[in-house]
Amino acid sequence: MGLLVDGKWQDRWYDTKNSGGKFVRAQSQWRDWITHDGKPAEGRSRGFKAEPGRYHLYISLACPWAHRTLIFRTLKRLEGIISVSVVHHFMGADGWTFLAEDGATGDTLYGLDFLHQIYTKADPAYSGRVTVPVLWDKKEQTIVSNESSEIIRMLNSAFDEWGDASFDFYPEALRGEIDAINGLVYPAVNNGVYRAGFATTQAAYEEAFGALFSALDTLEHRLSRQRYLVGDRITEADWRLFTTLVRFDPVYVGHFKCNLRRIADYSNLSNYLRDLYSVPGVAGTVNLRHIKAHYYGSHDTINPTRIVPVGPTLDYGAPHDRARFGRAAA
Ligand SMILES: N[C@@H](CCC(=O)N[C@@H](CS)C(=O)NCC(=O)O)C(=O)O
Question: Residue 131: CB within 6 Å of ligand 1?
Fold first, then answer.
């Protein structure tokens, strides 16, 4: 685990000294947009035009943020339009690597060894964290974006000429509600599990823990009345929650000490999780081996023995009861 300083790799764990033991996630630094016409998005100076075959995703199958982008690529039928490299699940002193073992593909574009070399290829003087996902432009040989919440919005619409335009996970009329749900789910749940797990003081952990379970209780109640987070159709808000839920019982309960309740103990959330898992194409994006091996193996301040627990028994493919709300709408 480390970061780049003026283009030089340094092996360093997250610094929580100046934040009272709280884990504070750094802002993603690459924030350009792919658009239909290639004009720069508002407030940006670089433009990237949507074109088949031009872009590439660097992802980890373990990472919930990268997982969002893989789900959108799959559901929008962009497999033939946007290529992918999968990093190795172990993130050690070199950060994410392209060791092509155990389901990782290696760097299928340039044959590099480490993900940080992709960042310095784009900017030799880059300073900051080296995270997945990365949306890469093969033509300009640079990073378009390393912010998953924005990459999924691009995938949702910019490539509709070639992908499946019938799915719109961020429809105009629902944007306000989707943004409001994301505003609850991101800090308390998606990032909340990390804030609990990476806290280095009891107080910081308990604060994150309380907010996490209070948000899960709210979501459980919401899902007792409707099939999806924003009514009767699947939206971006559901996929953003899904990638945390799917990791919760196998990893966050134990490794990040989020153990007040399991998702399995929440009737609506667990059925909802299986409902989303049953959407064609989604199960193929979930790799529990990479998920468990990454977290338990890579965070040696939390799990120095790197032993990966054998349990729990999980069956996300089991039937769910969500059809009681009516048919699934795209
Ligand atoms: N805000 C980013 C966060 C991405 C992120 O933190 N990814 C993690 C993996 S789950 C990572 O690569 N961490 C490496 C590090 O922080 O050094 C996004 O949503 O795209």
Answer: yes
Interval 192-212: pLDDT, tens: 999 999 999 999 999 999 999
Q: Is 129 annotated as a binding residue?
A: yes
Q: Which two tokens stand for residue 322?
A: 């969500």
CATH code for the structural domain at 2-157: 3.40.30.10
Mean pLDDT over the full length of the chain: 96
Neighbours of 287 (CB within 10 A): 18
CA dist 313 → 66, 245, 274, 278, 316 (Å): 25, 15, 14, 18, 10
- Within the chain, all domains assigned CATH 1.20.1050.10 are found at 172-325
- CB of 147 within 6 A of ligand 1: the answer is yes
Q: Is the CB of 63 under 6 A from ligand 1?
A: yes
Q: Answer whether residue 330 shows pLDDT above 60.
A: no
| Residue 63 a catalytic site member | yes
ipTM over 0.85: yes
How far, in Å, is the centroid of ligand 1 from the Cα of 281? 24
* Residue 258 annotated among the catalytic residues of the structure: no
User: Which of 65, 85, 126, 130 has most ligand 1 atoms within 8 Å of CB, for mutation?
Assistant: 65
Higher pLDDT among residues 25 and 132, named by residue? 132
CA–centroid distance, 60 to ligand 1, in Å, is 10
Q: Residue 15: pLDDT band by 50, 70, 90 thresholds?
A: confident
Neighbours of 297 (CB within 10 A): 18
Active-site residue, from 58, 63, 205, 272: 63
Residue 132 annotated in ligand binding: yes
In the numeric block, which tokens belong to residue 50?
């949507």
Q: Topology of domain 172-325, per CATH? A: Glutathione S-transferase Yfyf (Class Pi); Chain A, domain 2 (1.20.1050)
List the one residue out of 151, 101, 94, 89 whose CA is nearest residue 118: 94
pLDDT digits (tens, 9 = 90+) for 100-116: 999 999 999 999 999 99
